[in-house]
């Protein structure tokens, strides 16, 4: 049954459909051809096809027996040692079905497993290697203990290029009969930052308006500010037009609905497009502002102080 999620509807089903990770896909295809898959560790930013690659490899390998020989667990939901002792071990110890050489168990978000669970997992990987291969998926490989990393072949997924994401979005928009303008596509690429899942979700959300998708629709449904508005606010702050910069900031926070934390990060992203050189003091002020907002400080007050610090920094450079 169609669940209405475009991220699932247009998820690649085979390795040949995955784009933007050519070297990794080539290696996984070779594993499938030889029917020899090692334990794997997939690491990288969100939305870069890590889970999709694991599922596609299993489908290519198992074909009709995919359902019997594949299991996915999200370690962020059940992150303790019990999940390893019970669910993981029960699946790993059972024999593969349909003539498959082994089963495949995917532990998504494995960097959320506790240290005890990870230590328990390493023994399970060794004991049942003949009947089960494990694929650990994480955003930060540094959170996986070294003994587990050493037991896995590590694949590092990179952020997807705008060209790759743009082609996929145009394909989906054509399939769904959604008109999308160039500035709307550019806005989605700006916000997605290499995350295919985020880009497809933005496209689906923007399509719900029933109008041709442009940049205004994308930024309004995402709760983010347009880069041009951020740049104008920064120019006002750097020129000493504090009141105008503050009014723009308050408009973004109170009327547009931009979250203070998102606004800080957009300021950091756009500042290099406004000034030739960003000083260490300016970067420190941005970092301090983000930290204080994260810790619960009033966002409007912290952002006002940041805009004032930008003016002071510009005065020092002059």
SSE map:
Elements: H1 6-9, H2 22-34, E1 40-43, H3 50-62, H4 66-69, E2 70-74, H5 81-93, E3 103-108, H6 115-127, E4 132-138, H7 146-150, E5 153-156, H8 162-176, H9 182-192, H10 196-207, H11 215-222, H12 227-238, H13 242-256, H14 260-271, H15 280-294, H16 299-317
Parallel strand pairs: 1-4, 1-5, 2-3, 3-4
Helix pairs in contact: 2-3, 5-6, 8-10, 9-10, 9-11, 10-11, 12-13, 12-14, 13-16, 14-15, 15-16
What labels would you give this structure?
318 residues; alpha/beta; Rossmann fold; Helicase, Ruva Protein, domain 3; Zinc Finger, Delta Prime, domain 3; 3 domains; five-stranded parallel beta sheet; 58% helix; globular
How many H/I helical runs?
A: 16
| CA distance, first residue to last residue | 63 Å
Shape: globular
CATH class of the largest domain: Alpha Beta
Structural class: alpha/beta
Please tell me the CATH architecture of the largest domain by its name. 3-Layer(aba) Sandwich
* Secondary structure tally: strands: 5
Mean pLDDT: 90
Q: Segments where pLDDT lies below 50 for 5+ residues?
A: none
SSE succession: HHEHHEHEHEHEHHHHHHHHH
Helix % is: 55-70%
CATH superfamily of the largest domain: P-loop containing nucleotide triphosphate hydrolases
Q: Estimate nothing, just give the exact number of structural domains.
A: 3
Q: Oligomerization state of this entry?
A: single chain
Whole-angstrom Rg: 24 Å
């Amino acid at each position: 049954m169609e669940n209405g999620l475009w991220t699932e509807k247009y998820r690649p089903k085979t390795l040949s459909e995955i784009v933007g990770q050519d070297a990794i896909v080539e290696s996984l295809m070779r594993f499938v051809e030889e029917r020899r898959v090692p334990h794997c560790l997939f690491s990288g930013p969100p939305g870069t096809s890590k889970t999709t690659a694991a599922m596609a490899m299993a489908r290519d390998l198992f074909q009709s027996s995919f359902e019997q020989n594949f299991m996915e667990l999200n370690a962020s939901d059940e992150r303790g040692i019990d999940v390893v002792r019970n669910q993981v071990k029960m699946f790993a110890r059972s024999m593969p079905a349909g003539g498959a050489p082994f089963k495949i168990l995917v532990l998504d978000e494995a960097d959320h497993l506790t240290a005890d669970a990870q230590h328990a997992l390493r023994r399970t990987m060794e004991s049942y290697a003949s009947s089960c291969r494990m694929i650990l998926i994480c955003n930060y490989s540094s959170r996986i203990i070294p003994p587990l990393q050493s037991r896995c072949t590590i694949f590092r997924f990179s952020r997807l290029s705008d060209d790759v994401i743009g082609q996929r979005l145009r394909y989906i928009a054509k399939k769904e009969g959604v008109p999308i303008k160039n500035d709307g596509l550019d806005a989605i690429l700006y916000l997605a930052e290499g995350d295919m899942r985020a880009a497809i979700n933005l496209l689906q959300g923007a399509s719900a308006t029933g109008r041709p998708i442009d940049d205004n629709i994308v930024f309004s449904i995402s709760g983010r500010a347009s880069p041009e508005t951020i740049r104008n606010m920064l120019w006002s702050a750097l020129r000493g037009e504090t009141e105008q910069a503050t009014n723009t900031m308050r408009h973004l926070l109170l009327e547009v609905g931009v979250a203070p934390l998102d606004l800080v990060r957009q300021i950091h992203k756009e500042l290099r497009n406004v000034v030739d050189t960003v000083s260490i003091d300016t970067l420190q002020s941005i970092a301090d502002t983000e930290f204080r907002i994260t810790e619960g400080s009033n966002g409007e007050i912290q952002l006002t102080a940041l805009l004032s610090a930008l003016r002071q920094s510009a005065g020092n450079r002059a």
